[in-house]
Specification:
Keywords: Membrane, Transmembrane, Transmembrane helix
CATH topology of one domain: OB fold (Dihydrolipoamide Acetyltransferase, E2P)
Distance between the termini: 173 Å
Oligomer: single chain
Number of strands: 5
Mean pLDDT: 72
Order of helices and strands: HHHHHEEEEEHHH
Strand order of the largest sheet: 1-2-3-5-4
Largest sheet: 5 strands, mixed, barrel
Strand content: 15-25%
CATH class of one domain: Mainly Beta
Length: 247
């Protein structure tokens, strides 16, 4: 009995293998086999999630940084922030690197925790070796701007736990690099304020001193003119009041 010879895929199958749907399916399977956050979720990762995922990796230059969202606010209202750009803060504790897969660039998966121990999962494109601004080191408190997609499951020390998945186009940044001025500039600013305040106090004191001296200055500087000239000399015995006439 002869075995049937395997046939090559027909034109219809070949076209499907080269279609975007097939590429997305392969990418999804590869991501699910490599990255732990892609294997399980509140809802299974589907092909429809890849569009939001890819869109979150695109940089949006010119847009202002969104407001800072606390972990509890994000945890209590996941549907409110789903698909929304947010800014969160945490301390990086672990970081993994993943090479390019399909049309996705090399990615970094960073795990960060809040001061109370609540975890985040951040994903962003890996920086090049000659990048002008390197990624912040592990154990540093940073801020991350990205799109909140969903909550993902990860294996904790005892049971499975959930963590918000946030995908962004740029790596996290240290808060002092973006919000706090250098210490030297801050000291100069304080000195300028003190100098300006001192000058203002001195100016007010001078104005008040001049204001108090004005009445004295006017009297002392008045120049009296010559004695008035009368048409006729005054009487020798002027009448002092009307009572003398009656007498």
């Amino acid at each position: 009995m002869t075995r049937p010879i395997a046939q090559r895929p027909g034109p219809r199958h070949s076209r499907w293998l080269r279609s975007p749907q097939a590429t997305g399916l392969v990418t999804c399977l590869l991501l699910g086999s490599v990255l732990p956050w892609a294997r399980s979720d509140d809802s299974p990762l589907a092909l429809t999630d890849l569009a939001d995922y890819r869109r979150a990796l695109v940089a949006r230059d010119g847009e202002p940084a969104p407001a800072l969202i606390r972990f509890r606010e994000l945890w209590d209202h996941p549907t409110k922030y789903a698909g929304t750009r947010i800014q969160v803060e945490g301390r990086i504790v672990r970081r993994f690197r993943q090479g390019a897969i399909g049309t996705f660039p090399p990615l970094v998966e960073a795990w960060a925790v809040t001061p109370s121990g609540d975890p985040f999962c951040w994903v962003y494109p890996a920086l090049k070796e000659n990048a002008p601004t390197p990624s912040p080191p592990v154990q540093e408190n940073v801020r991350f701007v990205g799109t909140y997609l969903k909550r993902i499951r990860y294996q904790g020390a005892d049971v499975e736990r959930l963590a918000p998945l946030i995908v962004g186009p740029h790596p996290p940044t240290s808060p002092h690099r973006t919000a706090r001025p250098p210490v030297v500039r801050s000291g100069n600013t304080v000195n300028d304020w003190l100098l300006g305040l001192t000058v203002a106090v001195v100016a007010i004191a001078i104005i008040a001193w001049q204001h108090l001296r004005k009445p004295i200055s006017r009297v002392s500087s008045r120049e009296w003119g010559a004695d008035p000239v009368f048409d006729s000399p005054p009487p020798e015995n002027p009448v002092q009041d009307g009572s003398n006439d009656e007498r």
